[in-house]
Amino acid sequence: VSVHVVALLVLGSFPEGSRRSLTQQCFFKMGTLTALIGIWMTFSLVEAHSKAVTTSLTTKWFSTPLLLEASEFLAEEDNEKFWNFVETCQNFQSSNHDGTDYSSYSAVLQAASQNLSPLQQNLLKFALSLRSYSATVQAFQQIAADEPAPEQCNAFFVVHGEKTCEADRLGTLIQTASKRPKPFMFKGDHKYPGSNSESPIVIMYAEIGSKQFSEFHRLLVSKAIAGEINYILRHYVANPNKEKVYLSGYGVELAIKSTEYKAKDDTQVKGSDINSTVIGDSDPIDEVQGFLFGKLRQSHPHLEEELKELRKHLVESTNEMAPLKVWQLQDLSFQTAARILAAPTVDALTVMKDLGQNFPTKARAITKTVVPSELRSEIEENQKYFKGTLGLQLGDSALFINGLHIDLDTQDIFSLFDVLRNEARVMEGLHSLGIVGRSMHNVLKLNIQPSDSDYAVDIRSSTISWINNLEIDSKYNSWPSSVQELLRPTFPGVIRQIRKNFHNFVLLLNPSHESSAELLGVAEMFLSNHIPLRVGLVFVVDNAEDVDGLQDAGVALLRAYNYVAQEVDTNYAFQTIISMYNKVNAGEKLKVEHVISVLEKQYPYVEVNSILGIDSAYDQNRKEGYSYYEQTGVGPLPIVLFNGMPLQKEQLDPDELETVTMHKILETTSYFQRAVYLGELSNDQDVVEYIMTQPNVVPRINSRILMSDREYLDLTANNNFYVEDYARFSTLDSKDKTAAIANSMTYLTKKGMSSKEIYDDTFVRPVTFWIVGDFDKPSGRQLLYDAIKHQKSSNFIRIGMINNPSEDPAAENTIIARAIWAALQTQTSNNAKNFITKLLKEENAKMLEAGTDITEFAVGGMEINTFKMAFEAPEVGFILSHAVYCR
Questions:
Q1: Residue 881's domain is classified under what CATH number?
Q2: Residue 371 has what DSSP assignment?
Q3: Name one GO cellular component term (predicted).
């Protein structure tokens, strides 16, 4: 598995100009490092003849152990991997390494490799080289400093505010913990898996791998497993290394710039003043590239002129700041590319890095490279292609990781690391599922809706009255209409004016509500300022059969709007209702009188009663608008939808709404850019149709289903383990446990299978329910009963059951759980389903608890003897395995 990184370098030529002597200069560009980072810059300028410049950045805090940084890397991968790593490194400081930095680094990598794939190991090396997690470790160090540590303690406990480093006192502190308030927990705290959240919180501050840590850790783990404590680990280094952390993530730009601005005739300049001291005979430097010219002149005085020429050639070939003529720069970028491509494939990146980092010292030699005509033609074709598709001009660069465009102006090395890590997770997950080669490429191209994305409702309803349409309205005729305009480079923050309905702004409101005037005012501002935004209205008013607009201001405004829209157009109708709201004083609500006064002024010849009355012919979308609002489930009015996504209530303040909407336009622009770049959106497609076919668009927003935090099971593992073997199952990690559960699962289907039937693999049931519960308790039985009842309406659902007993499993308290398991293993699907449904009824469950024979509840067609043998078997390993998995 590999992550593909593509860098596009659009080569450009240096323009011809006056003949000027050009020198290379070095410019440093450094971003501001914020938060806890202090900056020290050390410029080491060696003697004049060496023009080397070195820079370094260090932090205010002392160097943090690589072991702790590696543990934080694993914690981001998985909490279980973190604790496995902790177990492996309990005695790290006393392990077999000689104490040098390199041996310690190698030992850390070896310990981490037990929990990481080869690709993840490479990412760990990258993270350690960047010292990405040093700040995280230091954050824990500062938290520990706020406690602070008891004297003479290299590791200590904190139990609800009480501190100690004596293991004997821990029991007493735990017993009295309930009398003290619980401590504040941080997002990055490491909680031992299986700890009882209701138990007293014991926070250990220690350095992983130290002797004292190992002793305390074993003690706390035993108490956590027993359910006595909630074990939290925080890093604490009692004796930190006094060295500073050297930071990565800054850059040095080497640019070519003219340093003199008067024209000179190159034929009259015998040499550069800059190099005269180097090339001249009086140059004190005797040795050049290993040749001792002083000795050579003494030994061969008759070759003085030849030695001078040789010395001049060697100096010029090594001089870091050697001048270049304008004509030498014209093909320099092409020549550099030719030099890189001429290198062996395995060395190409190394050569590219060397030339890029040491360009001034290599420039003179590069000018002698011959550019093949085929390469020149290929580069020119690439320039045309990327200019047309990505808008890259000559000299521009672009970076793509697995097809994701990385903005070089806003991204840094740390954000690139995050992108690489996320892509690695996706690709490894796909690879473990058997998706490789071209199939993986196709899956990566899918635009999968992220779990934390905002859901949207369908805005293609005819109920929405659109005020404008960017694609057909004449006032937008001067705007370009091609979606390719999205790929043209612009200044940051510039909103692109394109004749496509990329951004749709819908107001659902009750006209008589106090906030309606302000929201409509924001919409008018967008329209008057030619913001590329399509605005739509849905008036949610009384939906009764007979409503008199002369008595209801909301209904009156709706009918007045419909009348003007039919007479003129929706844009003019919108301006008319704005005029109505302009008559409303601040703090007041819209009244029927406001509507009538505007109508009488604009249409004096029309009888107002015929427009607003009960028998009005302009009652369109009154009931439909209310039905649309009810159907979408978007919550209390007013509602603002941006491309169907409802904005939060706190964002509906007029000033805030304007800012939020502009930000939404900028955010969604990048989304459409990606779609155009990948060929998913073209000029002949309806943009609104494209938006509404995305996976985040739903017919109704149900907050109970869509807005809850979701956790996903990792189903990528593949093994041959089963839940019946509890001893083996308990040693597996969470991923392999999930695989073992899946291997052992027998599903109920509407027309499906049990273990005794041949399952039709050609019929795929896309929805799988794993029902987790204590089926010997009423709550668990009710949940399973509801799932089976729901299954009767669909043949696309299969149901599996996982036991989560609330007590230690025994024969007397697992009657129904064992009966369900035995039925699934021995009966046909239909018989098993009927039998299980019968057991789940409360009256039957109570009879079983009272001692009724289980076979009394058998259904027709059951193989009772086979079932009874499985039911009475003493093995409860599957229940123990299920219980461990649920914990």
A1: 3.40.30.10
A2: P
A3: endoplasmic reticulum
